[in-house]
Design goal:
12 strands; D-Maltodextrin-Binding Protein, domain 2; 5-stranded mixed sheet; 3 domains; 11 helices; alpha/beta; Arc Repressor Mutant, subunit A
């Protein structure tokens, strides 16, 4: 019995990752007709279209994704063997890491991450990508990014989650705000609010609005922003109030004439995790970066809510 060409698995992995014959050809340094021929052979071997054209481009079939998930770990192991990278040395690595992170996470963790990467892995690169609310964690599923850090309560089954910290939210307003000295429930309800919202289900903004609705409380949202760091200038010029993560709120209040007060309503805390594809669980370079994030979180004074161990 003739064995299929195992090189086809590399083509399968990259075709699913990029969804483009042109991009795969560029990455491998081969011709587009060569990649198209590999795609035809894959279709014959798997008896499946592998990629199908939609309005948004080429997307992989369910069977192709299932096969890729099975072989991803083996391909990663082979790549590390070929690179002589089975014993990972951060001081020598030229690895490029990609991270999905909101501006809140960037503000909170990037200074520490940058400092420690410069010290421990000076030749490594970190590429930070703002999360796309419509694709959410799909970039991790398709391995277009290595990690995501944030509040994600509806993660796909292909991903692993490691909880990093939990922190409360606080109310923020300008100094001299009429309700600053007595920000009670009545003040919360009559205030105009700046919301930080995502269209994604499972986002913190969705959780916050659900909890308020369950308690019969409706905020008067005057403006809704996609960015935490866009909030302070609005607060300084108005009597609006914002509900922000405590660490961000207190940091901003040290730099700007803002006042931070406890929320008069018990609101859900932000539960922040790092997520990554299951196929990268045993990758030594990934393990190093995950541990580095834990160390940076710990040094920042944020509370680790689980023991330092990975969990599904």
């Amino acid at each position: 019995m003739r064995q299929p060409d195992l090189n086809l698995l590399i083509y399968l992995d990259l075709l699913i990752k990029h969804g483009s014959v042109t991009r795969v050809a560029h990455e491998l340094g081969v011709s587009q007709p060569g990649v198209s021929a590999a795609l035809r052979r894959l279709r014959a071997v798997l008896q499946d279209p592998v990629l199908v054209r939609t309005g948004g481009g080429m997307v992989p079939t369910a069977k192709a994704r299932a096969v890729q998930a099975q072989v991803a770990g083996a391909l990663g192991l082979w790549a590390r063997l070929a690179d002589g990278d089975m014993v990972f040395d951060p001081a020598r690595t030229t690895r490029s890491y990609s991270l999905l992170a909101s501006d809140y996470i960037q503000f909170l963790l990037l200074p520490g991450l940058a400092r420690e990467m410069a010290r421990q892995a000076p030749q490594a690169t970190l590429r930070v990508i703002p999360p796309n609310p419509y694709r959410r964690l799909q970039m991790l599923v398709e391995r277009e990014a290595d990690f995501a850090i944030g509040y994600y309560h509806e993660a796909p089954e292909e991903l692993r989650t490691r909880r990093l910290f939990i922190e409360p939210v606080m109310c923020v307003m300008r100094r001299g705000h009429p309700d600053a000295d007595c920000f009670d429930l009545d003040a919360f309800v009559r205030s105009t609010h700046v919301g930080v919202a995502s269209v994604s289900q499972g986002s913190y903004s969705a959780t916050l609005e659900r909890v308020l609705a369950e308690r019969g409380i409706q905020r008067r949202l005057s403006i809704i922003l996609p960015s935490y760091l866009a909030v302070p200038p609005l607060l300084l010029e108005t009597d609006h109030v914002a509900t922000l993560p405590a660490s961000l709120a207190t940091a901003l209040a040290r730099q700007l004439p803002l006042q931070v007060v406890p929320s008069p309503i018990a609101l859900p805390a932000l539960d922040v995790s790092i997520l990554y594809h299951d196929s990268q669980q045993e990758d030594a370079a990934h393990q190093w970066f995950r541990q580095l994030v834990v160390e940076v979180v710990s040094a920042s004074g944020l509370t680790l809510s689980l023991p330092a161990s990975d969990s599904v």
